[in-house]
Amino acid sequence: MLEELQEVLSRDIELDPDRLLLVGVSGGPDSLCLLDALDRLGYRVIAAHYNHQLRLEAGQEAIALGEFCSNREIPFTSGLGDVPAMAKEQNQSIEEAAREGRYRFLFEEAASREAQAVAVGHTADDQVETVLMHFLRGAGLAGLSGMPVRALPNAWSDQIPLVRPLLHVWREQIEAYCRGRGLDPIYDASNLDTTYYRNRLRHELIPYLESFNPAIRRILWRTADVLRGELSIVTLSVEAAWEECLLAEGREYVALSKRALLGSHRAMQRHMLRRAIERLRPGLRDIDFAAIERTLDRLSDPKPQARIDLSAGLALHFESDRLWVANWGAELPRGDWPTCFADPKALEIPGEMALPEGWTLAIHEELDLQRALVEAKENTDPFQAWLSLDEVAGSLSVRTRRAGDRFKPLGMEGHSVKLAEFMINQKIPLRARESWPLVCADEEIVWVPGVRLAHPFRITAQTQRVIQLRLFKINRS
Amino acid sequence: MLEELQEVLSRDIELDPDRLLLVGVSGGPDSLCLLDALDRLGYRVIAAHYNHQLRLEAGQEAIALGEFCSNREIPFTSGLGDVPAMAKEQNQSIEEAAREGRYRFLFEEAASREAQAVAVGHTADDQVETVLMHFLRGAGLAGLSGMPVRALPNAWSDQIPLVRPLLHVWREQIEAYCRGRGLDPIYDASNLDTTYYRNRLRHELIPYLESFNPAIRRILWRTADVLRGELSIVTLSVEAAWEECLLAEGREYVALSKRALLGSHRAMQRHMLRRAIERLRPGLRDIDFAAIERTLDRLSDPKPQARIDLSAGLALHFESDRLWVANWGAELPRGDWPTCFADPKALEIPGEMALPEGWTLAIHEELDLQRALVEAKENTDPFQAWLSLDEVAGSLSVRTRRAGDRFKPLGMEGHSVKLAEFMINQKIPLRARESWPLVCADEEIVWVPGVRLAHPFRITAQTQRVIQLRLFKINRS
Questions:
Q1: Strand, helix or coil at A375?
Q2: Mean pLDDT of chain A
Q3: Which residue among B141, B201, B209 places its CB closest to the CB of A227?
Q4: I need a surface site. Which of A297, A372, B157, B475 has the fewest CB within 10 A?
Q5: CA distance, residue A205 to nearest chain B CA (Å)
Q6: Which pTM was predicted?
Q7: Which of B220, B222, B233 is facing A265, going by the closest CB pair?
Q8: Secondary structure class of A238 (helix, strand, coil)
């Protein structure tokens, strides 16, 4: 066993024998075996024990463990937690609170002593039980691939790895090792109560499954190992897709590209959405599966419902090419949209009008009519237009939209449409529509900058007076 | 149920109601429900029944089914197979032979009638049982993701999809449907015997697992669905990696790039190797896991064992950057290596010597010594060299290597090495070494084309006579 362990330590875990390694020790056979084996292999270990104060004899056991280490000249440190109080405070089960208190202690100790890693005694049997537990509770690929032999980052640190050198060693081997080495582990009598579910799994379910396949334990261990490999492939793909999808990220929001999402498989879309949620709610356990599926169903909908409520205080907003995942009521950053004062302001010819946020509307008369015709025809900048002044009776002005506005888009032969609907069809984001500048002749909309000229104001070979309009932002053009 | 089914049919399966659809019908509740529902939804169906001749009453049942279809004006076709004889012939279990005979019949019928797909009646319960079965037997991601709702290519066709429209419908729903529609399914009494394992799973294991999690069936169905999504991500990644890795492929061999493999995750390496094996042994079920792991362990070994035996009549060969997976004794294609006659042949100056396979060795004297010095210094083509004739006492010749050959590589200050070891270090493939041309002055090796000049024959500012040597192949340079 020692030889195999040495190989795992140096090849898979990449531990340095000369740097300090903190070993979490409960006193049970697994952790005692781990401590003893690492010490014999010449690793610089420190034993760390956490007293959960769940049993009367726990204090006694901590002292015995300290003595064991002292006899072996292994440094020893211990911590104390009032788990029942912690559980009550955090509204957790005793088991959860014990686990969290213990790992927090181990990683704090490791950090303060600059240990290279925290090692714990999980065995191959623990791995199998973990996989089974996830299988029964419903899990994705990550759950079914069990525990990794080396985890960094982990839930407690992004600097110090959590390592499990015994993950390939079976409990029988460990008990034989303890007997052979004369080690005297503590068998926690309360184990059967605190982790009832896991114990039923161990003592009932696994033996039962062995009647279907006697090799079930080895099979499930292998399954975890193979799936962990597949997980690493998926993770790499997800990383690459995230780079493609992410448009913006803040403390209260994540914006994903709808176009990039639509170019991916459904499974990848699911990952992107889950990841966006995880960014905003890092600890969240139960992401609402149905809400994610509903959202994905709507991705290809050209006019999706603007907002979908997710659980956990999050909402989804569709906005032209953006899919926002954000806190309810979060202020989302504005796009680089043109914006305008609500009240109409008269435009002079020639002239420049300063609009909010650095936007400028410039007008001048184009005297070379031939040139204007050519330029208007060849124009590709939607924020630039040539229009016939012949059709303008009163004066030109700029304003934002009003209820009931209609518009005759160029190319629709004078047909009039509702401006509100036209803006939606043109994928102007909801928040942008409100303050979008509209150039008007009296009440009639002449030009929706960035979108379309009005049909009656187009220039033709018969036009006598032509003006050129240009909307621009200093840091834009 | 009909509405949901309609959605699955048009959205997930993409069936065309106006094109013929062949429905495999056993007469049991699942397939009868499927046939009835598709017919009601207006699909152009034909019922296809296969009589396995495993039970006395089977002939009777086929006739009853034909009558049912005739009453409903559904076209009906049936096939007959002597399954026990097939099983014996193919050395298969009765269940396997029945399955193979049935599907072959369905796909042959579908092909001859130009049906758009073969539909079968697998239910959500079948899906759960399949996942459990794979879990117990040991399976990778593909096994744990169960059956797809639409499979193309599948084991029987790469033209006609196999579809499972009822994969999201539970057996209870189907039985309620049958009762509601007054359908009278056949309950196959022998079912309990022929698929003992699956029945134990259905009637014992699943109810037992429900004592751990009452929602286990829905959980496992969802797990399959989620894992199928992950599988699609892995499959895309594997496709892309395969494009990177594959160097050559023939009927008897596949060559992978060692460099590309080393640049991938272990899990991806595993996929590449398994895929290479699958290309050569398409049906192979049990690929030797340990042999694959052993091979991967050796990938980064600079001098791996040249050949590793795999099971199934396959062997692995390492050859410089190539990893060959091939039939035992397969003739592997040669690389584009230079090659030579075994016996020495005298070289003339100037002159050209034709070598085998279109290679030519050209020699001429370079009279401009200054230029020779510059060109030799700047040369980047290893198949071209300038050497000092001052050091050549006798005549130049070209030959292949001999036992005991030594060589003084340029840059090693006249130090002599074993040619055999030098060639290995220079990564000349084993098969190439034997016939590699060597330019000699009497017995001494002057130049190993493509690799290195000999130190004593380098040109310096003191050199009086210089020759230029060039080895080339017509389709190469």
A1: helix
A2: 89
A3: B141
A4: B475
A5: 8
A6: 0.76
A7: B233
A8: helix
DSSP B91: T
Question: In this predicted model, what pLDDT tens digit does every residue of A190-210 receive, in sequence order?
Answer: 554 446 778 888 999 999 999
Task: Flag if B227 and A141 touch (Cβ within 8 Å).
Answer: yes
ipTM of the complex: 0.75
- Tokens 């509307």 sit on residue: A361
CA distances from B415 to A152, B248, B436, B448 (A): 49, 39, 22, 16
Q: Count Cβ atoms within 10 A of the Cβ of residue B439 and give its class: 0-12 exposed, 13-18 middle, 19 or more buried.
A: buried
A324, β-bridge pairs? A255, A317
- Could you count the other beta carbons within 10 Å of the beta carbon of residue A354? 8
Q: Both tokens of residue A423?
A: 């803006």
CA–CA dist A246, B48 (Å, integer): 50
DSSP code, position A333: P
**Partners of residue A137 in chain B, C-beta under 8 Å:** 213, 219
Residue B22's DSSP bridge partners are B46, B118
Task: Count CB pairs under 8 A between chains A and B.
Answer: 110
With CB atoms and an 8 Å threshold, state whether A233 touches B267: yes
Distance of CA B443 to the CA centre of its chain: 48
Residue B390 DSSP label? G
Percentage of chain A surpassing pLDDT 70?
97
Please give the Cα distance from A307 to A279 (Å, whole number): 19
d(CA A253, CA A281): 11
C-alpha distances in Å from residue B45, one per residue of A445, B4, B66:
57, 19, 14
Subunit contact B138:A266, Cβ cutoff 8 A: no
Q: Provide the residue type at A210 as one letter.
A: E
Mean pLDDT per segment of 10 residues, for chain B of length 477 residues? 87 90 95 96 96 81 92 94 87 87 96 97 96 92 95 92 97 96 81 65 93 94 94 94 90 91 91 92 76 82 75 84 87 81 89 88 90 89 91 89 91 87 83 89 91 91 92 69
